[in-house]
Amino acid sequence: MNCHRKEFLRKCNFRKFFSFDCDDAFFDFECFWIINNNKIKAIDPEKRFSVTFLGTGEPGKADDPAQFDEPGGLSVAGDKLYVADTNNHAIRVVNLKTNKMTTLVLDGLTPPKKPEAQ
Looking at the domain that runs over 3-103, which CATH code has it been given? Predict the structure, then answer.
């Protein structure tokens, strides 16, 4: 990331930004992924261009249309984008080839029991 891009991101106050190669996904430019206002956006700081990739902007838990509630992290593996959807306590999985999102389900995994009141 060159200084121009760092300065752009700092001025825009993007606290959560991630550098992935967007050329292999939907975009024909080198970009960064940002999380802002319950949306995931791809931005090109040099062209001062952004596009909403997923999310309605309203907090929610729906897979279609894609909704998030304070997503806090992104990771790409193969053709999948994994989103840590913080307030929904969920991992969302986005197929980068189809742009479809699902919520990751781990069979047999349950949350810990709440401690008993004393």
Answer: 2.40.10
